Amino acid sequence: MSISIQNLTKEYGSQKAIDSISFDLSPGEIVGFLGPNGAGKSTTMKILTGYIKATSGEATVNGFNVNSETIEAKRSIGYLPEHNPLYLEMYIKEFLEYAGSLYGLKGKALKNRVAELIELVGLQREQHKKIDQLSKGYRQRVGLAQAMIHDPEVLILDEPTTGLDPNQLVEIRQLIKEVGKNKTVILSTHIMQEVESICERAIIINLGKIVADKSLHELKESGQSMEEVFRNLTGTQI
Ligand code: ADP
Fold this sequence. Notes:
This protein is an alpha/beta fold. It is about 35% helix and about 25% strand. The relative contact order is 0.18.
């Protein structure tokens, strides 16, 4: 399994941000992790990426336990956090070289990898710019390149299209689909169209519990739209 989560729980005081959730992702899957605000999506992703520890339960990435084999698990993961934190004063290449160096890449291998990613995410025309000169859509491409610099098996993308304009949205979704051909991808979102355009499967979480884990085909079997399915499962309008 690329990702395996078993009975994962995270408590903040008396509140359970996630409550004994379990799911598995096989290699090559692109899965949408859906839920209203506060459902527990970011909490789950932060545990997977080793940023916070679960209160109980287990999570493995690429077979490595995120608690006891943290370094190996982190090597297997590319993470694009919510709001895509970047060093705005850095040049694109400088930033990507820095990100690559943190994973031990150096010399010609590092330069080649940065050039490869700039091409893959479509930053050729912008490549000599500083990050603060870029539009939000292009910054998102830098964030995706950063996440993939060490060629991880698994990509974890936390609301990767939030705040993008309609053209940028389409382009970034296309890009995620493209890069997802060779990786396992879990992406959180509260946008239905996003799931329908990128994912084959959706895991829906509400109030810290998983309320559905199905292929999009199965979810829509009743003839309802994804919006209706979501409303029925979560009691929340999307
Ligand atoms: P989502 O990403 O689905 O919007 P989160 O995982 O961010 O949801 O949050 C799940 C719940 O946990 C929310 O009720 C949120 O307020 C709570 N929460 C998240 N982080 C903290 C924290 N550091 N301290 C206390 N409560 C938190």
